[in-house]
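Appendix B, Record 12. Input sequence as logged:
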Amino acid sequence: MGRRCKASAGTRQASCEKLPSQHDLVERFSVARETIKAALRKLQDERLIVTRQGSGTFVRANTERPVGLRPHIERAFEATNVTIDFAGFSGETMYNAIQETLDKVRIGRLTPESIRVRVLISDMTSPMAIPCRAEDQADDPGIRARARRITDRSIHALTDAVQELADLGLVKTATTEVRVHRAAPLFKLFIINEQEAFFGFYPVVEHTVSVDGKPMAIYDAMGKDAILFPFTPSDEDASNDALYVEQARAWFDSMWGTIAREYAS
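Logged structural output:
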């Protein structure tokens, strides 16, 4: 078995685990050394392990690295009743994250009885800090209209994909609720089955887009560049993950029940 090592004070993860040497792995699994090297390279490329010169190779602590969301969502769909709350910009990330898992429900590889999705996004019919013109940081209806089209496309695709599962009789109930608010999009948040939370900041960047058929430099929140960090409480977890998930749920519900209003597609 691997050896445990303690993390420094101030980190949220209490320990990491050292992997056996390549020689030991070859002996244990009776495979060629090149096979072991290829597997380790893949794990390192995915930032699941880290090699420390003179010390060996260690499994990265979950909270010290960004995570891919899809495996967590797929695992959540192994539950009988699935709930996913998302807060963010356009809903595009939400649809991309869940699409593959919904396909697995469609072909019978995952069999939840109910699915409930709630989406909380910024209202692009109202002026806000971003997106805006880069030149003078002023609001521009054309920029917001462009963002609204992206939102409409993502929300319609998500709603149709979830509803189709109920229409086909693959799940007993499936709902997607969408509400908007007038706060600028600064971060994205996923809450999965009320037990796990994933949070990431939106970087604000300048890029050029087509607005009313003309190129325009804008400041925009870039969801694809948002690194998600996990908060996944466990019985052995002595960190603040459980408190974070609790507060994330409370924040989401407070927004949902107060200043958010129904999304008009």
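The first strand starts at residue 3 and ends at 6.
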